[in-house]
Each structure stands twice: as structure tokens, then as C-alpha cells.
Amino acid sequence: xxxxxxxxxxxxxxxxxxxxxxxxxxxxxxxxxxxxxxxxxxxxxxxxxxxxxxxxxxxxxxxxxxxxxxxxxxxxxxxxxxxxxxxxxxxxxxxxxxxxxxxxxxxxxxxxxxxxxxxxxxxxxxxxxxxxxxxxxxxxxxxxxxxxxxxxxxxxxxxxxxxxxxxxxxxxxxxxxxxxxxxxxxxxxxxxxxxxxxxxxxxxxxxxxxxxxxxxxxxxxxxxxxxxxxxxxxxxxxxxxxxxxxxxxxxxxxxxxxxxxxxxxxxxxxxxxxxxxxxxxxxxxxxxxxxxxxxxxxxxxx
Length: 302
Description:
Elements: E1 5-7, E2 10-12, E3 16-18, E4 40-42, E5 59-62, E6 65-68, H1 77-83, H2 85-89, E7 94-99, H3 104-114, E8 122-126, H4 137-140, H5 143-156, E9 160-164, H6 172-181, E10 186-189, E11 193-196, E12 198-199, E13 204-205, E14 211-215, H7 220-231, E15 238-241, H8 247-256, E16 260-263, H9 266-269, H10 273-287, H11 292-295
Parallel strand pairs: 3-4, 3-16, 4-7, 7-8, 8-9, 9-10, 10-15, 15-16
Antiparallel strand pairs: 1-2, 5-6, 6-14, 11-14, 12-13
Helix pairs in contact: 3-5, 5-6, 7-8, 8-10
């Protein structure tokens, strides 16, 4: 089956993307997964200068997911370009670079640097991380601030710009609309949900940061609802994510209106999860004599 899909001008061989922050920069997973089979790879969040991230412990497993407060630890955009981008360029896969910052100026500096790199196909602007002290969620929870970041990044790059949206807001549709008006070529959602875990024996938080971002199966119903709402409200492509572990999970997001899907936490449990989803999606389309275009947004509500 033909799984090719166009996401805001990026031609993907299939709609399955490795989500930011869960696939490293592909060097580790490249030993376990044939990365060239994926639609795209999204890098870890990259800042202008290296970030150390939050204190340990910063991961806690729950009954139906994972809470992390890594704090977007990364080596910085310049080191990424020197050390990691050449490895990604050697692979037959599209590259989406996730960018972060504590100020609008930091976002624009990173975007400007990446704009010159031929191996970068798109920039995903992370305005939605719930476990850093500055920037992140504060940008993504205010429609005006979200629009300001996106508009500023758009001025600095000719690359496809994807706005990554937070579920930790009153109305995600309004954030998406403002991102679209500001020039975003696509939106991706959702990022993790603010959460916490407590050790009953010590009566202490399991995370040094106290709060972190919940991912995994527990957030899928919320993510699915938000993807459907946003896809009904904007004219730009939606990349859906949040608790996708199986082929059926991915299909549900596409039926809800997502043009493509990103898989994250599932790869911790099964490094082959994305490959299994791609194969399962192809089999589903063949069995039902469907194309991806016909499947996208095909939810029957009556």
C-alpha cells in the first residue's frame, strides 16, 4: 500500500514519526531499528546553549504511563549540527528538529542557525514542555505569547514550522488557531500532561522536580479528543501524538483528523513499535481498500 503523505510540504514515505525527546538523535536507536523505514525522526529539544536539565530522580513509571522531568537536557544546537546532523543526513529519513528556549530571542536564534542546514526538513517549535522553569509551557498556555514565538521563528527560517501544543491549557483550539494565524505550517499535539507521583513509604515526591509530564496510554483519550477538536478548527495539517502504542491507536488519530502521528513512550517498551505500526497500517488499508487520504478525518459521528 502507498503510505506516502504530504505534511505541510514535507513528503513522508509514511505517516509515522519518532516523537521528540524519546528517540535521542537516532544514534542509539539506530542500533535497534531500521530508521530509514520511518516517515520522519524528530530530534530532542535543542536550545542555543547546552542545558543540563533537571535534578535526579527525573523519571517515574505509573500504572499506565511514564512521568518525566528531564528538563530538556541537550548539548545545544551547534554541537548537534557538528556531531549528530551528519549521521541523520546519511539516513533515508526526513528530519524534524525540535527547538526550545527560555525567551523568544533564544527560539529565533536557534531557528536562524538551523535555517542554513540542508539536512533539516522542518522545525518543531516546542512551546509546551511542562517541566522547565522558564519558557516552555508559559509560551504555549497563552495564545498571544504562542503566536509571538511562532511569528518570530517564521521570520528567521524558510523551513516548515510546526507548533507543538500543550494539553495543559483551558482551550487548545484557541492556541492552535493563533499558531496558524502566526504562520505555523502545521501543529503537533499533544505534549505531556502535568502530573506527579508520590512514594507512600517516604511521603516524598518520586521526582526531584516534584511535577513532571505524563505520557503513555493514560493520556491517549485526552490527546485523541484534542486532535479531533483542533483538526476541525484549523486548515493546516495536524500531527497527532499521545499514548500511541499500537496500529489501532495510530489509526484512531488519523480517523480523528491527524495527517501523521508521532510515537514516543511506546519505543521505550518496544523499540520496534513504530515499524509494527507502519506494517499494521499498510495491512489495514489493504484489507479495507482505503487510502490514507480517505481515512484521514473520516470519523463518523452520526
